[in-house]
Amino acid sequence: MRGWTWARAGGWSMGLGALAVWLGWSTRSERFGLFLLVAGAFMMVVPLVVIVRRVSGSSRRAAGRIQRRSRRNDGVASRWAVWRTSGRFAVRRRMRVLKPSTRDMSFVQRMRVPTLELATPLARVGRQRIWSPVEDVTIRIGPPRRGKSVELAGRMPRGRLDPALTLALDEAAVIAPIPLDKWTSDMGGRNITIHIAVQSRAQLKARWGDTGAATIVTNASTMLVFGATDADDLDQFSKLAGERHERTHTHDRNGRLVSATTQRVPVLTPADIAQLAKLHVVIFRPGLAPALGRIEPAYKRRDVRTVACQDARTARRIERAPVRAARRAIWAARWAGAKAQVDAALTAVAAWIERTANGPASEADRRVDPDA
Prior knowledge:
Rossmann fold; 10 strands; alpha/beta; 372 residues
């Protein structure tokens, strides 16, 4: 069965709209028929307008859309952009590609597949969470003690490989020398997820050279910036964030508005990036404006807390096992003694009942035969 796409949704909308128009035209003399006519026309016109705009699109219109997008939300990602490109919905739409074993599943079975098997949660932007698919390479850049290791900890080997393979490389530039520049080139096609954490781009250049460092950064589909102190890195990140339109008002000495001009300013200045708080990141992803989010440390994740609680309960159970065994032995001995006492009492009561039921012996029975 084919996946649900925008083109397929548009085709269904136009088909249902045509059906509604036909039914409404046949009953146009009634109020319900007029309602069907209007609703069907709307369902046909909206997909048609979208298709015409896409077909007749030009570079000028595309550039205009990019400029209008930079004016909205001060140049950063909106909630709609996050949901459409990097949210849970966007990841689950690609389930058949990210996890091929789900192609033969029914809709209900696919709904039960956890999103963690398809992507990795990166950070929260408001109430939403940005996800990185398992086929992407993610790189984290930031000075020490900014939260890179805290965010990288607890990465679990899940993905479309069965079983999945995840490489969580904390301080990748100072661990064992590996051809990371070559691995990032084709590991996405091999369904291997790579998470890289370094302190700066200078570390990458010192280990893999200028060309290798540029290759690693280019192959990374997602970049998380935890801040920086190097001027070159700050300028580079500020350029990646782009520019936005800012309206400037000029007033005279009396406070009256003289003129209003629009100028382009950076979305994030180097100082803004350098002053990021701990556990706060700037997220760069293709097709998404820069997003400011807050990471979730591994020890605060729900699944990690659940495992920690289970381990704590298991440890307490093991610690209390000798005490409980001794208590069970004591109560078993007490129960055995009480049972023996009850058995003896029941035996005495049964003998007494038997004597009472037989009655007292007669005089003839108690008389002793002298010849005996």
